[in-house]
Amino acid sequence: xxxxxxxxxxxxxxxxxxxxxxxxxxxxxxxxxxxxxxxxxxxxxxxxxxxxxxxxxxxxxxxxxxxxxxxxxxxxxxxxxxxxxxxxxxxxxxxxxxxxxxxxxxxxxxxxxxxxxxxxxxxxxxxxxxxxxxxxxxxxxxxxxxxxxxxxxxxxxxxxxxxxxxxxxxxxxxxxxxxxxxxxxxxxxxxxxxxxxxxxxxxxxxxxxxxxxxxxxxxxxxxxxxxxxxxxxxxxxxxxxxxxxxxxxxxxxxxxxxxxxxxxxxxxxxxxxxxxxxxxxxxxxx
Length: 286
Ligand code: OGA
Ligand code: MN
What we know:
Layout: E1 2-5, E2 12-15, H1 25-38, E3 40-43, H2 50-58, E4 78-81, H3 95-101, E5 119-126, E6 134-138, H4 139-144, H5 148-154, E7 158-161, H6 163-170, H7 178-182, E8 187-190, E9 192-194, E10 201-203, E11 209-212, H8 217-231, E12 237-240, E13 247-251, E14 255-259, E15 269-275
Parallel strand pairs: 2-3
Antiparallel strand pairs: 1-2, 3-13, 4-15, 5-13, 5-15, 6-12, 6-14, 7-8, 7-11, 9-10
N-oxalylglycine is lined by residues 80, 103, 109, 120, 122, 134, 257, 259, 270, 272.
């Protein structure tokens, strides 16, 4: 197994390993250690079957249920696909296209759930000729670079995260039925998180973070936006240009990500499993 770090504070490409096999514990621990160090691991050309994708995902922890039963035949997967069942494409500006478009804003998966996701594993099934890359940003290094006064100010701050807020700004909410929307009330999370395995602090924000609890809504929203804008800059970002068959895993506790747009007349089909945060009490686990 070769671990090739990206030229940034995050990310590494791992080659010389076949994730479709049943990895021994030693190999898996080496992958997990690299993941904790780099935050994002890119495994090119794995071409995993759905069952292999799920089996590898389960090594990291329990899987999370998705927010809608639409567009997936297996509850373990979120399918991010612009291809309809009949093979034609959803236009970017359709309700389904807008639902996907939410991913173009910097975010961390499931931060709108009471127990936010630990990890996501995204596999490329069909990729466009151009565009459709995914960017990642390192919230540990961005936190480290903040002025001490700002770190102190943020230390005990709580942000309110809401999917109905964030997706409401983009559109496409009607993809979720009423019960699915009702299951997503606003939740609260610390703005500064300490990683349970590495002990590193990081910023925890992104598009689902509406405002800071107890502060002026618009002012604190502007502060969160500014922190996010400042954090999502070189050398704390990488972009992965997908090849079909690639698998990428990222740590939602300390990384943000966003998807780039692609030509609307081309198919892009991605499948994601999501690893639940570590707790014994999570209504979203499968
Ligand atoms: C995701 C996501 C972005 C992309 O899978 O959680 O935000 O590039 N994806 O598809
Ligand atoms: Mn995402």
